[in-house]
Structure to design on (210 residues):
């Protein structure tokens, strides 16, 4: 049986000999994206004040959506019935979805973090949502983005010490669960975050995560 094609092909176009910074070409299922790239944020599946045609006129190749917010509204069931987020928002270029982990910081007062996952209280209607690594991937599989992210244990940029180390180890454990839950590996790229967790504050933890 022939191997299925990869959902990502990366080509390094240039590399800085001093900083090792790279310019790359990413071939994704819906678009070829040059990096570094500015990625417009369409948190809930749309860009405020812009339509897809205008983004194409600006040569935008990729948009970011958010799993937590899309999981609440319009919800994965509606997105799945529409044929995925590309069809839902009439965008035929690349999409990336964040796992929902950032809401551990932005909605910290409404979140409870355990080994199982993150339990959020909706800021819209007060309903509860348990976002586990498995549920995050399930929602992202329904959304159908070209690049999906593992659920990570996110800490604020001001946090240091034991909490950062706890977050690093939990993120690595959650990565294993995300990989096991991913049902569309040949259509969607799962990007791990264990290698970059806590770079903002705690270099030692990053080195250990490698």
């Amino acid at each position: 049986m022939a191997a299925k094609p990869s959902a990502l092909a990366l080509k390094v176009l240039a590399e800085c000999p001093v900083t090792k910074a790279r310019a790359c070409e990413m071939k994704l299922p819906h678009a070829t994206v040059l990096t570094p790239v500015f990625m417009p944020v369409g948190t809930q599946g749309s860009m405020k004040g812009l339509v897809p045609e205008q983004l194409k006129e600006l040569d935008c190749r990729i948009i970011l959506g958010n799993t937590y917010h899309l999981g609440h509204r319009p919800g994965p069931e509606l997105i799945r019935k529409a044929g995925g987020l590309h069809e839902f928002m009439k965008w035929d270029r690349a999409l990336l979805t964040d796992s929902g982990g950032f809401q551990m910081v932005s909605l910290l007062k409404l979140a409870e973090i355990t080994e199982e996952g993150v339990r959020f209280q909706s800021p819209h209607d007060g309903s509860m949502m348990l976002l586990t690594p498995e549920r995050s991937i399930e929602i992202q599989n329904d959304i159908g983005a070209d690049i999906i992210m593992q659920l990570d244990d996110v800490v604020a940029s001001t946090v240091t010490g034991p909490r950062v180390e706890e977050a690093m180890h939990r993120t690595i454990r959650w990565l294993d669960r995300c990989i096991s839950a991913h049902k569309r590996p040949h259509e969607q790229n799962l990007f791990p975050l264990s290698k970059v967790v806590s770079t903002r504050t705690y270099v030692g933890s990053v080195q250990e995560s490698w």
About this structure: Confidence is low (pLDDT under 50) at residues 195-202. The radius of gyration is 18 Å. Residues 162-181 form the longest helix (20 residues).
